[in-house]
Automatic annotation (TrEMBL):
Organism expressing this protein natively: Sphingomonas limnosediminicola
Phylogenetic lineage: Bacteria, Pseudomonadati, Pseudomonadota, Alphaproteobacteria, Sphingomonadales
Annotated function: Involved in the biosynthesis of branched-chain amino acids (BCAA). Catalyzes an alkyl-migration followed by a ketol-acid reduction of (S)-2-acetolactate (S2AL) to yield (R)-2,3-dihydroxy-isovalerate. In the isomerase reaction, S2AL is rearranged via a Mg-dependent methyl migration to produce 3-hydroxy-3-methyl-2-ketobutyrate (HMKB). In the reductase reaction, this 2-ketoacid undergoes a metal-dependent reduction by NADPH to yield (R)-2,3-dihydroxy-isovalerate.
Cofactor: Mg(2+)
Top-level EC class as recorded in UniProt: oxidoreductase
Enzyme Commission code(s) on record: 1.1.1.86
Residues annotated for substrate binding in this entry: S250
KARI C-terminal knotted domain span: 181-326
Name of this protein: Ketol-acid reductoisomerase
Residues annotated to bind Mg(2+) 2: D189, E225, E229
PROSITE patterns xrefs: KARI_C, KARI_N
């Protein structure tokens, strides 16, 4: 694995270039601000009447209509939601100048054919491995966030240089840039979201909470045991790795983890994980995402409403209220 850092990366490919950021959400805001603070000429492309224009200007950034931002840009970073990349790209492609570099922070829309770029364009990936809020706060602390980088189309012969310069300008070169591909980044990210951190872990936490409550444990104690300690284990793993985490917890906790963990994550679970990876690679999830967007996000809205009414969320709100009162 090659890890490139600031000292290995030439910023020249971005010097004097204008970068248009499309999408002012979690990643868009952070990347735009980091670019600006690195001395890069940045404009945020917005739709007419967008409420984000006030926020953009309050942050000291330039705002413009999407069509104008794109027409004047040397680099266009598409940071809007993945599921609208196809319609957004179709809208902007006629405005893209010959030789423009188009960037993404997630490989999904290129890997699964939502976006098929004009042959004269450079197409690159810079994917910070964490949320935009953390990308911004780390930059402000003089630190950085590891990112993956890749090139899908190198029309200019310098797409890699542009990608790496961009990664350095948003602060990721401080931590390290790892070479990947659009396919690898997209497949690994989608698998993780469904089968590990964002999908499986919350379900395990909820199942543990419900099991304890059904067994007569108070909801508050069940919450503190099953959810409250999650931050502790995450911090220990970040600092020491999984093996190191196990070495510093109590013998009781370590033996319990040794005996119980394999009973929960057994061969059947691993087989279902393999199924999810195969489905991701076959494009099944990409199709589901487009269907969800076409439905107006009906399943997601229903799931969000249902989640807010669960006992685990009620318990969370009670504990937060107590904590707030104590702090006050």
């Amino acid at each position: 694995m090659e890890m490139l850092r600031d000292a290995d990366i030439d910023l020249t490919p971005l010097v004097g270039k204008r970068v248009a950021i499309l999408g002012y959400g979690n990643q868009g805001r952070a990347q735009a601000l980091n670019l600006h603070d690195s001395g890069i000429d940045v404009v945020v492309g917005l739709r007419g009447g967008s409420g984000s224009s006030f926020e953009v200007e309050a942050a000291g950034l330039e705002a413009a209509l999407i069509e104008d931002a794109v027409a004047d840009a040397d680099v266009v970073m598409i940071l809007a939601p993945d599921e609208i990349h196809d319609s957004l790209y179709a809208e902007i492609e006629p405005r893209l100048r010959h030789g423009t570099a188009v960037g993404f922070s997630h490989g999904l829309s290129v890997r699964f054919g939502f976006v098929r770029s004009r042959p004269d364009l450079d197409v690159f990936l810079i994917a910070p491995k964490g949320p935009g809020t953390a990308l911004r706060s780390l930059y402000q602390q003089g630190k950085g966030m590891i990112a993956l980088w890749a090139v899908d189309q190198d029309a200019s012969g310098n797409a890699a240089g542009i990608a790496l310069a961009y990664g350095r300008a948003i602060g990721c070169g401080r931590a390290g840039l790892i070479h990947s591909s659009f396919a690898e980044e997209a497949e690994a990210d989608l698998f993780n979201e469904q089968a590990v951190v964002w999908g499986a872990v919350p379900e395990i936490l909820s199942a543990g909470f419900e099991t304890l409550v059904a067994g007569g444990i108070s909801p508050e104690v069940a919450y503190l045991e099953c959810i409250g300690e999650l931050k502790l284990i995450a911090e220990l793993i970040e600092a020491r790795g999984i093996a190191g985490m196990r070495e510093v917890i109590s013998n009781t906790a370590e033996l319990g983890a040794f005996l119980g963990g394999k009973r929960i994550v057994d061969d059947a679970i691993r087989a279902r994980m393999s199924e999810i990876l195969a489905e991701v690679r076959a494009g099944r999830f990409a199709g589901e995402l487009k269907d969800e967007e076409k439905s107006g996000y009906a399943r997601l809205e229903a799931a969000r409403s249902k989640a807010r009414l669960t006992q685990i969320e009620e318990t969370f709100r009670r504990l937060q209220s107590v904590a707030d009162q104590s702090a006050g």
